[in-house]
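Title: Comparing notes on inverse folding

I've been comparing how different people in this forum approach sequence design from structure. To keep things fair, I'm posting one structure and asking everyone to reply with a full sequence. Here's the target:
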């Protein structure tokens, strides 16, 4: 029996790599749902190659073109945000690969969990915004969440066979991004094209900027807290520029386990699809005999203040991570359009976190409202 996969965000960096894994193992997997927001050309090409049951194009203006291009195939074509949510609820797949970027990934992921589907989770913002509700849904519906984010996949892999053993802490490694070692006077003048040059990973634009500001690691601290049921003080971050150790778990007896390998997202994607098994592949291997150094240092949170803001959001909880995430999405969007500077992003996020009302125990509806308010507030500061 093939595992039937639904890839939400199939045209992105994670989505296309998930399809590469599926294409390499047609005997194990089929692609049943593919979705994209704007890139209809890529979606059409994917549909012609993988012959899914359903495709959804978020941008409704592209519907006719997609429909036309697939008219000779049995592929069902839908468009719009509501269709995205509806598709997540259709019982034609076994696992969702949640590869949409940002808050937009929350709703389809919750629907998949509600239907009892397993979720391979790349979309970390889902857990940052509403981690309590998402994890609760996963438990209630016995719908497993398998992390795809490389650090969380690493931790997940280290925890195999350790279900009874208490975690003392987890150490999330961070490459430090393109501006490691730089100070604010340098960052003041950084432009988008420079910030988009990540040293180790080729990823979508939003996460690449998040990696340059270290917000990505902040989001990942919150993601780890929920995935592995940790207290905020059990999540530590460590700069490791080579990105070979993908993260570390330290157990109660002081023993540490790390998961290692070359930085290549196809490995955590494949593991999420095949868990609990591992299958053979021909991805390049890391070779310790070649001249190499593995370095570690503390992150510079005075320069990269987003990480300090994310720690505050992690510690205070409630709707603060949701507010932070929304303001960050707006700030990154504005930076990518050259509307604000690199350091302005932090100011926007900090202002939103200070000004918007704190809710200690938010409902799902509160999260939606906080997200909307924080977006409006951040956009008003930038005058988008
Ligand atoms: P990307 O920008 O390359 O792709 C995003 C995908 O989501 C595209 O298919 C796009 O069409 C779709 N999308 C965008 N906005 C949407 C919206 N409003 N509604 C519906 N669909 C929408 O992003 P990515 O780099 O593939 O990252 C996806 C997620 O995975 C992010 O949450 C990111 O943090 C996480 N992640 C990515 C990597 C990586 O290597 N790229 C690693 C770890 C985690
Ligand atoms: Mg990561």
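Reply #1:
Here's my take.
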């Amino acid at each position: 029996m093939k595992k039937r996969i639904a890839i939400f965000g199939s045209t992105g960096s994670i989505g296309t790599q998930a399809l590469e894994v599926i294409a390499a193992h047609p005997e194990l997997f089929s692609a049943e749902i593919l979705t994209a927001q704007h890139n209809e050309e890529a979606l059409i090409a994917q549909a012609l190659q993988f012959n899914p049951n359903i495709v959804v194009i978020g941008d409704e203006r592209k519907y006719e073109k997609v429909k036309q291009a697939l008219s000779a195939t049995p592929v069902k074509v839908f468009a719009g945000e509501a269709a995205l949510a509806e598709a997540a609820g259709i019982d034609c797949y076994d696992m969702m690969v949640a590869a949409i970027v940002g808050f937009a990934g929350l709703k389809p992921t919750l629907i998949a969990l509600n239907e009892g589907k397993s979720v391979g989770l790349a979309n970390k913002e889902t857990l940052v915004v509403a981690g309590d509700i998402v994890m609760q849904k996963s438990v209630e519906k016995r719908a497993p969440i398998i992390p795809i984010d490389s650090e969380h996949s690493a931790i997940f892999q280290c925890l195999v066979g350790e279900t009874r053993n208490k975690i003392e802490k987890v150490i999330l490694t961070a490459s430090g991004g393109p501006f490691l070692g730089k100070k604010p006077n340098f960052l003041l003048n950084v432009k988008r094209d420079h910030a988009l040059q990540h040293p180790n990973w080729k990823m979508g634009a939003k996460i690449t900027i998040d990696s340059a500001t270290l917000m990505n690691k902040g989001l990942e601290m919150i993601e780890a807290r929920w995935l592995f049921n940790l207290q905020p003080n059990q999540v530590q971050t460590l700069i490791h520029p080579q990105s070979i150790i993908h993260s570390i778990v330290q157990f109660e007896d002081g023993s540490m386990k790390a998961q290692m390998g070359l930085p290549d997202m196809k490995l955590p994607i494949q593991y999420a699809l095949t868990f609990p098994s591992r299958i053979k592949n021909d991805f390049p291997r890391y070779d310790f005999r070649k001249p190499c150094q593995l370095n570690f240092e503390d992150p510079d949170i005075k320069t990269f203040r987003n990480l300090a803001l994310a720690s505050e959001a992690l510690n205070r909880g409630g709707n603060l991570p949701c507010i932070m995430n929304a303001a960050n999405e707006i700030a990154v969007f504005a930076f990518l359009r050259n509307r604000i500077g690199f350091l302005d992003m932090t100011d926007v996020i900090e202002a939103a976190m200070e000004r918007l009302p704190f809710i200690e125990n938010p409902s799902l509806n509160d999260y939606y409202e906080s997200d909307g308010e924080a977006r409006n507030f951040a956009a008003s500061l930038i005058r988008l």
